UniProtKB/TrEMBL annotation:
Keywords: Metal-binding, NAD, Oxidoreductase, Zinc. The keyword Ribosomal protein does not apply. This is Enoyl reductase (ER) domain-containing protein. Residues 16-372 form the Enoyl reductase (ER) domain. The keyword Zinc applies. Gene3D superfamilies: Medium-chain alcohol dehydrogenases, catalytic domain (3.90.180.10), NAD(P)-binding Rossmann-like Domain (3.40.50.720). Belongs to the zinc-containing alcohol dehydrogenase family. One of its GO terms (molecular function) is all-trans-retinol dehydrogenase (NAD+) activity. GO terms for cellular component: cytosol. GO terms for biological process: retinoic acid metabolic process; retinol metabolic process. InterPro entries: ADH-like_C, ADH-like_N, ADH_Zn_CS, ER, GroES-like_sf, NAD(P)-bd_dom_sf.
Length: 374
């Protein structure tokens, strides 16, 4: 029985940016009040984890990265009621406290207890549950999944169906709601519409699937890596544009292809230039542009305000605007009932200890989404 004891386990530690992760023995403290300790079974690797490792987006280091995880509750702290040891759970990069103004608002999902906007890398009491080589190790977004065991707040974890295939459902922690919600909740794509998707990686692929499910009749995919095209075509992309092979700016080509621009544009890359290109690709009067990519720290967006004056809407949202604890278990059930499909989004699986190989391949654009198995 490990409850109330420190667990010594293997974890991938990011000591600093621009260096490989190092697999180390990590001491994981027992959960305090309103916290749970989880044995991780699988974790996705998201573009955001890569951007942190590349130093493009800053979080406190050293840290255990990873924020899409599936596992089993090992033990719970005092006062925890929503989960118990043995439950299958998903970890949530956005918590849902169900008490703050955002949680109580019918549309709000960026809970005041988040640690995503200006990450502290610490639990809500200002301390960490991780120690390695006598050093404090930070958490990431209140999750940290590149480890055999982690500690998260009860409000950042949710029980899922016992029948869930744990080697797959981890991506329903982030990639799936982010991509599907961008389409279903934020843009509200309508049947017969034309969509353009910038970036055909993990998030962009989920967006394409949801556009198709919403009845979009034309889906233009934009990516500089043409190896992404065959796969994206199978998911629903009808036309491809590689900006590097065009003589004109890609947004101009989209406008010419569609008359006045797309009804809906999505940015799933995380660059300022492609965000503006996405906005300029959608049509005046009622075009909607949704930005899902996360730009490098401190960069500013700048565009002609007439784009907005003339009726375009620019939107964004974390986790596809889903209320995490309320909605994510339902997405898992929808998957089990075959109402949604997530299988095409997972292109690779690696054993956890090969995490650096996975990051290397992701960095080279050879992976849509990889799942680490523990
Ligand atoms: N123009 C077009 N496509 C580009 C460009 C560019 N200038 N630069 C990169 N891409 C493509 C890559 O080739 C890749 O296919 O964008 C895609 C990005 O996909 P991933 O690396 O798989 O990243 P993903 O996990 O989908 O995340 C995308 O969303 O959640 C955020 O932080 C995340 O900002 C990131 C974005
Ligand atoms: Zn809240």
């Amino acid at each position: 029985d490990t409850a109330n004891k420190v667990i010594l386990c293997r974890a991938a530690i990011a000591w600093r940016a621009n260096a490989p992760l190092s697999i180390e023995l990590l001491e994981v403290d027992p959960p305090k009040a309103c916290e749970v300790r989880i044995k991780i079974l699988s974790s996705g690797i998201c573009g955001t984890d890569l951007h942190i490792l590349e130093g493009r987006n800053k979080v406190p280091l050293p840290a255990v990265l990873g924020h899409e995880g599936a596992g089993i509750i090992e033990s719970v702290g005092e006062g925890v009621t929503s989960v118990k040891p043995g439950d299958k759970v998903l970890m949530l990069p956005l918590p849902e406290c169900r008490e703050c103004c955002f949680c109580l608002h019918p549309k709000g999902n960026v809970c005041v207890k988040e640690d995503v906007l200006s990450p502290t890398g610490l639990m809500l009491d200002g301390t960490s549950r991780f120690t390695c080589k006598a050093q404090k190790i930070h958490h990431l977004f209140g999750t940290s999944t590149f480890t055999e065991y982690t500690v998260v707040h009860e409000i950042a974890v949710v029980k899922i169906d016992d029948a869930s295939p744990m080697n797959k459902v981890c991506i329903i922690s982030c990639e799936v709601p982010t991509g599907f919600g961008a389409v279903f909740n934020t843009a509200k794509v309508t049947p017969g519409s034309t969509c353009v998707v910038f970036g055909l990686g993990g998030i962009g692929s989920a967006i394409v699937m949801a556009c198709k499910a919403s009845g979009a009749c034309r889906i233009i995919g934009v990516d500089i890596n043409e190896k992404k095209f065959p796969r994206a075509r199978a998911l629903g992309v009808t036309d491809f544009l590689n900006p590097r092979n065009l003589k004109k700016p890609v947004q101009q080509v989209v406008v010419e292809m569609t008359g006045f621009g797309a009804d809906f544009a999505f940015e799933a890359i995380g660059l300022i230039d492609t965000m503006v290109a996405a906005l300029e690709s959608c049509r005046r009067s009622y075009g909607v542009c949704v930005i899902m990519g996360v730009a490098p720290n401190r960069e500013q967006l700048s565009f002609d305000p007439q784009l907005i004056n003339s009726g375009r809407t620019l939107k964004g949202g974390f986790l596809g605007e889903y209320k995490s604890r309320d909605c994510i278990p339902k997405l898992v059930t929808d998957y089990l009932q075959k109402k949604i499909n997530i299988d095409p989004l997972i292109t690779h699986t690696f054993h956890f200890e090969r995490i650096n190989n996975a990051f290397e391949k992701l960095g080279k654009g050879k992976i849509i989404r990889c799942v680490l198995l523990f």
